[in-house]
Specification:
heterodimer; A: mainly alpha; about 80% helix; globular; B: mainly alpha; 4 helices; about 0% strand; extended
Chain lengths: ~240, ~110
């Protein structure tokens, strides 16, 4: 029992340094919601229901653009598709649990939980130790996220609009984009998707966004093949 | 969008997000093949989505459909990219970009 408690607090301790990244993000999420004219209850409801900062910011910018319901819904869920990878990662650990533990822990999965709990040193622990560690990380992450948003709501009304704080959203996505791009293929995907997003800006109901994402992903799937074919042919030419 | 619609939206997205999170955990045991097959697409989605979300909002000033290029925003974005290259976080690049934006706005007004 004491060992379980130790793992739980180890998880809490490891999350603490990450709060410096969670806090400003939560502040932005809270303050932006208020600046869009939502009541504090609505922003909090949205925060608890989404429990996903990037999807929340994506939804804000689409709500601001008066995008239709279905587009906002699809976009927000698509932004969260990365959670499917986390779900797959922790399936062996969380899958066998009783429902009352499985569902809340699944709800609390996040980038931070994934990052900390998939470290090599965690893999060496026993399953129950990993589970308690994950619980510690997930619970403290949830608390720090929700408290950051509350703080953002409290400060939000006192921030003047000519500071254009809403520009922090595309900047935050840009920063995330830069950290996501780890090779040339992913760079091409971003380049094509970004250009298409500009090119198809005038399509109605924000469909340009979906077109851009599909174009980017298809290009990413096709380009390595084309590249291969091209270098094969070049190789053939030099032989002949 | 009125408040009721917004609440419906929040519940719909909340449910969708939860189902994504639960997906493989719930289906544990019968999904190995599916994960392998969709891995490629799942890996390419984040850059595609993030780029489509932020590029138009950075290049053009609001409303983006008027295609008004804003050089101040572009410079702020360049600062953000530079810092993000080194810091690998989200916080400092945003702070740097916003400081650049405010500084240039003050200088140009």
């Amino acid at each position: 029992m004491t060992d379980h408690r130790k793992q739980f607090w180890l998880g809490v301790r490891d999350l603490l340094p990450l709060v410096s990244g969670v806090l400003p993000f939560g502040l932005i999420a809270g303050a932006t919601g208020v600046s869009l004219g939502m009541t504090p209850e609505m922003v909090m409801g949205m925060t608890v229901l989404f429990f996903a900062g990037s999807a929340q910011l994506a939804a804000y910018s689409l709500i601001q653009d008066n995008a239709p319901f279905i587009i906002i819904m699809i976009t927000a869920v698509v932004v969260n598709l990365r959670f499917a990878i986390y779900s797959a990662t922790f399936a062996p650990l969380l899958g066998p649990l009783k429902k009352r533990y499985r569902l809340p822990l699944a709800y609390m999965l996040s980038d931070q939980v994934y990052g900390l709990c998939s470290m090599p040193e965690q893999q060496q622990k026993s399953d129950s130790e990993r589970l308690w560690y994950l619980t510690g990380v997930a619970v403290s992450m949830a608390l720090s996220w929700i408290l950051s948003v509350v703080l953002g709501i409290a400060l939000g009304a006192s921030i003047p609009s000519h500071w254009s704080l809403e520009f922090t959203i595309p900047l935050a996505f840009l920063a995330m984009l830069v950290t996501t791009i780890s090779n040339r293929q992913l760079f091409m995907v971003a380049l094509i998707s970004g250009s298409c997003a500009i090119g198809f800006q005038l399509l109605p109901y924000n469909t340009g966004f979906i077109v851009a994402v599909v174009a980017g992903v298809s290009a990413g799937l096709l380009i390595p093949g084309l590249w291969q074919k091209w270098s094969d042919r070049k190789g053939g030419d030099s032989r002949g | 969008m009125d408040n009721l619609t917004l609440w419906m939206l929040f519940f719909a997205v909340g449910l969708g997000t939860f189902l994504v999170r639960l997906s493989f955990i719930q289906l544990h045991g019968s999904t190995e093949a599916l994960i392998q097959r969709s891995k490629n697409v799942l890996m390419l989605l984040p850059p595609a989505i993030l780029a489509a979300l932020c590029i138009p909002a950075i290049v053009f000033s609001r409303p983006v459909t008027e295609y008004q290029v804003d050089p101040v925003q572009l410079l702020a974005a360049a600062v953000t990219i530079l810092i993000a290259k080194f810091s690998r976080s989200v916080f400092w690049p945003v702070v740097g970009g916003m400081l650049c934006l405010w500084l240039l706005r003050i200088l140009s007004s």
